[in-house]
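Ex. 9. Protein: Fatty acid desaturase domain-containing protein.
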Amino acid sequence: MGAGGRMQVSPSPKKSETDTFKRVPCERPPFTVGELKKAIPPHCFKRSIPRSFSYLIWDIIVASCFYYIATTYFSLLPNNLSYLAWPLYWVCQGCVLTGIWVIAHECGHHAFSDYQWLDDTVGLIFHSFLLVPYFSWKYSHRRHHSNTGSLERDEVFVPKKKSDIKWWGKYLNNPLGRTVMLTVQFTLGWPLYLAFNVSGRPYDGFACHFHPNAPIYNDRERLQIYISDAGILAVCYGLYRYAAAQGVASMICVYGVPLLIVNGFLVLITYLQHTHPSLPHYDSSEWDWLRGALATVDRDYGILNKVFHNITDTHVAHHLFSTMPHYHAMEATKAIKPILGDYYQFDGTPWFKAMWREAKECIYVEQDRQGDKKGVFWYNNKL
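Predicted structure tokens for Fatty acid desaturase domain-containing protein:
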């Protein structure tokens, strides 16, 4: 695999792909976070308010133009053309709004500016607009970054062990079952995670991102959960007023469907960043922060890499240095790849193929069979 860390797949069709990918090294790396940081040009860690706002304003302008065109001209189109225009609007608007979500995500990491109050203000406004409880997500997401790759403490897409697979799981391990599961995951997965912690780590008690007393949060964080909820309620009231004035159908077309696409991309991006046949997971006997942060993979979404502000193809660097602004992440990735060597993972498989492959191959994790590390777990699909 070499310094580039690209995946190599055996041409043999008889083997499961979980057996044909070269695994990420699971030993403690021969480098430190400090050595990686020294390899990155210092300017990559500098946050610029004008530059950060330039990306946000550009996305707002593009989204506003899409909205104006849809609400002004689509009603003038013949019916057969409107059936093409609306889906095109939904996809384009959904992609641009995903980019806005990513910038608000940067605010949650304090990567937008040097001022925490400014980051939180921008993040609260634009995550609320996308019906994301900003502070609630910020704190649970911070714990994800602190515990990536841990089977006990990671927050999202924590893989199951084989013993935890339900009896009916084997009946879903087929094309129809995978289609149903992926459809549910990408349409309902995000709201189900926020509301009921679906696919998250287990907690004692009701783990809900909208509940200030949820066990996800400590006492110092609970007031800000109320603020997050207030932001969501304000946007919901605005949507109610819009629907009352323009009609429910208009609200669904201009906002609801693009939001579904945003939610689907959020789940897809996160799923593919942390799910791959070559990636290990660790229990408490083996896990450490650096190996967990390296248990991620960069993906290629083509032109959408830029639309999504490179959150897709610089995720490894993001997990190592989450306060770095996105516009420096590509340069930082190139700087650390020679040091990371085989610990850096990139998979250029088109996302729609990778989505299906990972759903087929990465069903559960089991202990390492090739070495003596009982605290290391790898994906498998043999039910």
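Check your answer against this statement. Strands lie at 281-282, 298-299, 346-347, 364-367, 376-380.
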